[in-house]
Amino acid sequence: MEPTVASRTALGAAGHRAAHQTLEGGRVFNDPLAVAILGADAEDAIAFSSAKPERRGLRLFVAMRSRFAEDRAVRSIKNGVRQILILGAGLDTFAYRLEPAANVTVYELDHPATQREKRRRLAAAGVAEPPHVRYVSHDFESEAMTGALASAGFNPGERSFALWLGVTPYLTENAVLATLGELGRFPGGAEVVFDYVNPAHTIEDARLRAHRDGLAAHVAASGEPFRCALDTEALHARARVVGFTEFEDLDIAALFARYLPAAPAPKPGPGGHVVRMGT
């Protein structure tokens, strides 16, 4: 992505979250700020999604990954975690829906241009920036995040939870593995939820493969192409090397079974995944 331009794919993901609130009534994932943070772009995002039925699957995947990640984040907070990382935060609104009484600090890591755009949209929507949010400028491709976090007050000696949604496909594999390495080696321990996609040639379902190819063409045209696809077994093996011992990996069929059991679902197999890893 261009360093001086806010992420277009972050805006697209926010559009899916907003459209889900309207088109499915937030059935899977309820986010009362999803429409507000888009401002004048909300109506177009919802209309575009409504006019293209083929986008429903991606919209629901975005909703399901957010639901899974936030459910785990809330559980971690109840279990005493007080440091939440949102990696590649984009227009995510989790931090702005947290109750201050939770006594949690949220560190949002992202490119400066995307952070500026987010803060502009928050102000336009009348959403106050709560004191528990720390904005940390970070480029996953060119620098380690530990130093940037430390300068914002993060303590790697205390347990943390990370949400990392809609980011890994746009990074290089080296950057993804380096970030996992940092998380896995935090002395206080960490849990992370992120999504990833398997290599296109492994996706046997023709409809899923065609959808993935179409999406890849779309994001490439926006200037933010897919750069990373990960084999599930290889990813888990590499994560174990850097300290992760807990794994919960859900493909699209498993996500549908959990959140929309009555709806037609894709067959199990390679494609998009949401995974939870813990040390």
Structure description:
By secondary structure, this protein is α/β, with parallel strands linked by helices. The protein has one domain: Rossmann fold (3-Layer(aba) Sandwich). It is 43% helix and 15% strand. The chain contains ten helices and seven strands. The protein has helices at residues 8-23, 34-38, 42-51, 56-78, 112-124, 145-151, 173-184, 206-221, 232-241, 252-259; strands at residues 83-87, 105-110, 133-137, 160-164, 190-197, 246-251, 272-278. The protein has a seven-stranded mixed β-sheet with strand order 3-2-1-4-5-7-6, sandwiched between helices. α7 links the parallel β4 (160-164) and β5 (190-197). α1 (8-23) packs across α3 and α1 crosses α4. It is globular, with a radius of gyration of 18 Å. The mean pLDDT is 94.
| CATH class categorisation | Alpha Beta
Residues in β-strands, percent: 15-25%
What is the assigned CATH homologous superfamily?
Answer: Vaccinia Virus protein VP39
Order of helices and strands: HHHHEEHEHEHEHHEHE
Record field, number of beta strands: 7
Query: Could you say which structural class the secondary elements and strand pairing correspond to?
Result: alpha/beta
Low-confidence stretches: none
**How would you state the average pLDDT, rounded?**
94
Lateral strand order in the biggest sheet? 3-2-1-4-5-7-6
Query: Roughly how much helix do the residues carry, as a percent range?
Result: 40-55%
What is the approximate shape? globular
Domain tally: 1
The CATH architecture category equals 3-Layer(aba) Sandwich
Rg from Cα: 18 Å
| N- to C-terminal distance | 31 Å
The biggest beta sheet is recorded as: 7 strands, mixed
Number of helices: 10
- The third-level CATH topology is Rossmann fold
